Amino acid sequence: MSNPTNKKALELLFERPLEPIFTARDDGKAVFDIPDSFYSEQYSDVKEDIQSRFSEDVDIKIPLRELTKKPDLTFTHPVGKRKQFSLFNSLHRSIAARLIDILLNAGDEDLFIATCAYVKDRVNPFLFQYCYAVAVQHRKDTKNFEIKPIAEMFPQNFVEPAVFKDARAEGELVRNTGDRRHIDIPRNYTASDREEEQRMSYFREDIGVNSHHWHWHLVYPGYGDDEIVKKDRRGELFYYMHHQIIARYNVERFCNGLAKIKILNNVREPIAEGYFPKIMSSLNNRTYPGRSAFTKLHDIDREDAKLEIADLERWANRIIQAIDQGFVTDTKGNNIPLDPKKGIDILGDIIESTQLSVNPQFYGSLHNEGHNAISCCHDPDSRFLEDFGVMGDVTTAMRDPIFYRWHGYIDSIFNRHKELLSPYEDADLAFQGIHVSKFEVRIQTASQRASPNTLLTYMEKSDVDLAAGLDFGPKGNIYATFTHLQHAPFEYAININNADNVPKMGTCRIFICPKSDERGTLLTLNEQRLLAIELDRFTVNLVPGTNNIHQSSNSSSVTIPYERSFRKLGPKYQPTDDRQLAEFRFCGCGWPEHLLLPKGKPEGMAFDLFVMISDYTGDEVQQTKDQPSVCGDSSSFCGLKDKLYPDNRSMGYPFDRRLPEKTLVELTDKFPNMSMIDVVIRYNDVIVDRKA
């Protein structure tokens, strides 16, 4: 457990990532007292003046330990301090893995903090913040410390640049933070309505969506010590989390009158979609490069990245051949079967790819290098000295329409494996003696009882604090207001009859499926299962007779609350209960709660709401560690911290494989432990202010 001084030091290392370590932080109240040897060459001659200037009028001075042996950081030089850092770049990943190893092995907590302070000013700021955050998450002495939301550390990656000019001016001119106005982030600033893909900008450019993607890759790094990489079902989780994103995106397209994405399965074909992100890189004050419509992919020949487009085709063909054969071949020539239990996990590590790939030389790095090829297509040989585009950065990739076409292709490869598995049999789906006798959903209102099975969405205005990421900027909070989709809270009511004379345990699984596509054509069950959106999964105790289950949408196993996506930091905003505090610190990983439901349509859009009670004897996971689960409320996408994935079934069950019936109605009629109801999602085209 950290002492108060170390907690403060850990917090301050997340603040103002571009400022030198010796500047004042926490609104000018705190400063690090660093040894002379920590000053970089740039400031070593003026350190006395710096010490005098920044040590005045501060409340807290945090002394840092001298390092008897300083780490050799020359290996980080290929990622220059003003270059962009990318987890999709193999050289950058290997550099990050080495730096994470240094931070993880830095003795006790005092030594860790001192090492981080020494490293910070000597390496690329994005590289440092990523490695520092990974180390904090995975060290035993700091793993319960909160990770500051990425949108607050590097707001330039999420917010239109003109906002920062107004924010800095407001901070300098209005000294009292309570009197500062909230700067409005404009909607639809990346394209006009002449571009039909702009109908999806509220989803792609949502701050919570992009923060989730960054935090997931923080919790599940692909390279480094086995202790932080080799996590339970990591490859399968890579598949499932991205599969659900693609399902959600396609359903969201139906809501906006657009067809499903056209997957990017031909890397020789020009990319029809252009994208001009209009966000700044805080490292070099340049905007992320745009991509014109109908740009072609070319071989990459840059200083830190080499790739032939033919490599992508070759790797994809080898993976598809392995799927068709039913096995992959490791580096020793052993054939490893792609069975229903482990096959998807093996493929996830291969396709992403991570250091867990059974044969990285042969199967390559399809997912990562696809990101690189797209992100550098505007300047593949660096002749114009342009940095990579948004597809090269996990904090920004989901803004680009091509992300969904590329991941749609990746998902189709995974689904090829799933389609080759035998359909679920009756024994896989039934739960003897359990009958769902009633199922409905209602909006939760304070005044009157809402009509059942009609859900409501609308637009909401909320705030994000930019202060921590405004380097060399004014003191105090500076809020920006952004507009996002939101839904009225709702509750499931499920009546379950246990016909046996003994109590039973089950897992309640809730999915929502579109009934039809953008043209109104009804979808088959196999089409629906690929578009099934998981809404919740939770354990139920079933006594003999009737059981009345009520579950709020706020308790979803998929999402994290708004307060965790855009939380305020500091002791006065933290829970005092030990368990709630542990969850608060870890739980930045999870789908944003405000996007739990699809948007729907103003006239209402019809969906099938599906519930299944599965037999817990087939669901149960025997955890090897007995400590209470931290952040279990987003376990579907992020697993459990330091534990096994909490569901023994395949992720997405029962929709991950083909099913024995032709329609969802036939399926639920056959199995009494399942039920389906018609629901309507109605979008109300208004913008409301978020309640405090």
TrEMBL record:
Transmembrane segments: none annotated. GO terms for biological process: melanin metabolic process. Its main location: secreted. InterPro entries: Di-copper_centre_dom_sf, Hemocyanin/hexamerin, Hemocyanin/hexamerin_mid_dom, Hemocyanin_C, Hemocyanin_C_sf, Hemocyanin_N, Hemocyanin_N_sf, Ig_E-set. Pfam families: Hemocyanin_C (PF03723), Hemocyanin_M (PF00372), Hemocyanin_N (PF03722). Residues 400-411 form the Tyrosinase copper-binding domain. GO terms for molecular function: catechol oxidase activity; metal ion binding; tyrosinase activity. GO terms for cellular component: extracellular region. Keywords: Copper, Disulfide bond, Metal-binding, Monooxygenase, Oxidoreductase, Secreted. Its cofactor is Cu(2+). It is found in: Secreted. It comes from the Eukaryota. The keyword Disulfide bond applies. Belongs to the tyrosinase family. PANTHER family: GH04080P, LARVAL STORAGE PROTEIN/PHENOLOXIDASE. This is Tyrosinase copper-binding domain-containing protein. It comes from Glossina pallidipes (Tsetse fly). The lineage of its organism: Eukaryota, Metazoa, Ecdysozoa, Arthropoda, Hexapoda.
